[in-house]
TrEMBL record, chain A:
Family the entry assigns: Belongs to the ABC transporter superfamily.
Cited Pfam families: ABC_tran, DrrA1-3_C
PANTHER family: ABC TRANSPORTER ATP-BINDING PROTEIN, ABC TRANSPORTER ATP-BINDING PROTEIN NATA
Record keyword Transport present: yes
Organism: Sinobaca qinghaiensis
Xref: CDD domains: ABC_DR_subfamily_A
Name the UniProt record assigns to this protein: ABC-2 type transport system ATP-binding protein
Domain of life, per lineage: Bacteria
Record lineage: Bacteria, Bacillati, Bacillota, Bacilli, Bacillales
Domain ABC transporter: 4-229
Alphabetized UniProt keyword annotations: ATP-binding, Nucleotide-binding, Transport
Automatic annotation (TrEMBL), chain B:
Protein name (Swiss-Prot/TrEMBL): ABC-2 type transport system permease protein
Alphabetical UniProt keywords: Membrane, Transmembrane, Transmembrane helix
Chain coiled-coil ranges: none
Species of origin: Sinobaca qinghaiensis
Chain segments annotated as transmembrane: 24-46, 77-102, 133-153, 165-185, 197-214, 240-261, 300-317, 347-368, 393-417, 429-452, 459-478, 506-525
Keyword rRNA-binding among UniProt keywords: no
Amino acid sequence: MTILETTDLTKMFGRVKALDRVNIEMKEGEVYGFIGPNGAGKSTTLRVLLGAIKATSGSARIFGKDVWKDAVAVHRRIAYVPGDVSLWPNLTGGEVIDLFMKLHGTKNRGRRSELIDLFDLDPAKKCGTYSKGNRQKVALIAAFASDADLYIMDEPTSGLDPLMEKLFQKQVLEARENGKSVLLSSHILSEVEKLCDRVSIIRQGAIIETGSLTDLRHLTRTTLLLETKKPPQGLSAVKGVHELAHKEGAIQFQVDTEELDHVMAFVSAFGIIRLESAPPTLEDLFLRHYETARPQAQ
Amino acid sequence: MYQSLFAQTGNLSWFVIKRNKLRFLIWLLALTALTAGTAASFLGLYPSEAERQALTTAMVNPATTAMVGRGYGLDNYTFGAMLGHQMLAMTALTAGIMNILFVSRNTRGDEEDGKTETLLALPIGRTSSLTSVIASALLLNVVLVLAMTGALVMLDIESINLEGALLYSAAIGLCGFFFAAGTAFSAQLAQGAKTATGLAFGLLMAAYTLRAVGDVNENALSWFSPIGWAQRTEVFVSNIWWPLWLLAGSSFLIAVAALYINAARDTGAGLFSASKGRKEAGFLLQGTGGLIWRLQRTGIFFWTVAMFLLGITYGSVLTDTEAFFESTNVIQGVVSQTSDLTLSEQFLPVLMSVMALIGTIPVVMAALKIKTEEKKDRMQHILGRSVSRIGQLAHYAVFSIALSIVMMLATAGGMALAMDQESLSGSTVFASAFLYLPAFWVMTGLAVLLIGFFPKYTFVIWLYLGYSYIAVYFGRIFQFPDWVGELTPFGWVASYPVEEIKPMPVIGLALVSLVIGAAGFFGFIRRDTNG
Ligand SMILES: Nc1ncnc2c1ncn2[C@@H]1O[C@H](COP(=O)(O)OP(=O)(O)OP(=O)(O)O)[C@@H](O)[C@H]1O
Ligand SMILES: [Mg+2]
């Protein structure tokens, strides 16, 4: 069942197009990752979904309800953790967590104290004295202690130490086991790989890839080092071959994983002497997308 | 030593000035215009010496003394003597407000937002940041002195010569700087911009009140107030310069003390450090209303006490005035003889208008708090949960309206308590106070309107309040044309019991507040929120 759906979501800030026809479809029980370079539009998308800002065109629905018009009804069933958690300096962490749970309409004392222990937060301290990571914990505890069907989190682990990051990941997986859905944005690939069933890569406001991690692996490239009896004439023109370079009498190039089969067929005609391959990584895929973002962004 | 403490102070000062130039300009223009405008209007109001001399009978009574200070040079009440007597304290007070707002915004406010820490990482001295703010404040006040002196001299009034104009302006500028230094000091003690500003305003209130009490009772209390020192210059009459040394010396000492603490303490900390609090929310902190109460209760408490004390002060001043006129028989020409109202009843509307305008400050602040929440990225926590935008904004509006009632209750309560019931009955005081409520609500409505449509320009409401103050308070003294008063809700409030209560302005104001408030809600549910 579709829990969250955006169609051609577009957001203009004055004349700046922050989101350009974003389409997301998220199924119930899914952990969905949203990844992209700085300024790509991740936070903007999440804030549209939260009804904090209004889409210029296109639609966004959560639980079948319009995120702008039915914001309150939607919010009853979601929990949101903003990217940059700022709190009231004079209130204690415990007070803020209680307030947030109350505003959400949840009463779950057991879960609350369990999470406070788990995340090792001192709830009696004033928020003004908390570190960035501790403020993040307050928001996370309030979110996980609230009864929600969908968790929306903007870079939830920024500021957390590795131990807390692990705890966070455990909470997300636990939520999924309980049939909850999670939408999170991130810069950290390993986190996305560990948690997410599906991922969207966003760049300059537009989604450029979406799919499961296995799907995305198809988009990766294998790096090959090749030595042949006859020079492989015309290899650079073959579909799926990239970044061809001569190296110590051999040729190094990258092949789209999808095109590997017919590239191999092509080169075998030249008589293979040596063939070394480096496995495809998602890291490369992301870096490729991040890097190409740069020249256009300038 | 010098490098480690003060490196880059000059550059930082320019940076502070650049960031605040518009704010500086508005304040400078407002204060200079107020001074020159008042002096100029004297010319038209009291052209003959006889008229000026007649004014002394009206101006010398405990009520006026409490408000503006002791009269001097009364045997030859020149334009200069009038300006020094009637305007020095008020203008110094305003300059104090300007300096407090400027310094607290650029010290603790910045520190809270983490801006100071970013700066400290640069190769600047430990106290460079604070020194630059103090230096900018000094420069601001020097420019103010020059502008006011120039404006006064240009008016070319005989009794207002260069020496007098310079002394008058310098007294005001130094008073302003005294409070800049005081704020820099309080910012070192308290953790949090709000507390620091509160302390500084407390200091200002204390300075003004000590002076008022000292002046009325003719005792030494006035000597404990910087505003009192400024008035001892008897500017335009005796031109005594040495009290300025008191102002300059004490400001310097306070500034040095502030810098000393600043160099010694940790960034973000205060001398009073934050204590631990409760692990769980109390029964009051259960929703938006509870949160608003929690965040504003300290401010509300102090404002309520302040308004109550103000009411008591004015109430007892009225009692004194009544006795004063009974004993001296100079009543002729001051207040209407034909009226069957008592003297206190005739004075009441003026005092009430001043108290109402002061009471509006916390009421407007309460409504504008929602914008602070948005600016500090805290509104998303509330709106991201099951709270509607209408509900959220309505809480702030209702809170502001409730506060208007509390403020007027405290004021009228204090006044009724201190009044002698024969000359002024409690019910008259309360009626006169409550008549201002619809005007308060128009201000609340205006705040909501700005929040709904122009969240970046909410400061406009403070300019409008400043205008209202000038239109109502000075409009009465200087007989401005009617439309000046009609442009502010406070100008429409009946001067009960001098005028009788008419239903039209009350209903009209309430309707206006309702309409602009509703429009504000309409804007708020349609616009993007920023955090
Ligand atoms: N209120 C706003 N007004 C104008 N432009 C904005 C506003 N909010 C965001 N933008 C612009 O929209 C674009 C997308 O920003 P967004 O915050 O969504 O990026 P992001 O993907 O969350 O980046 P990061 O990884 O740095 O958090 C940026 O170019 C940003 O400058
Ligand atoms: Mg972001």
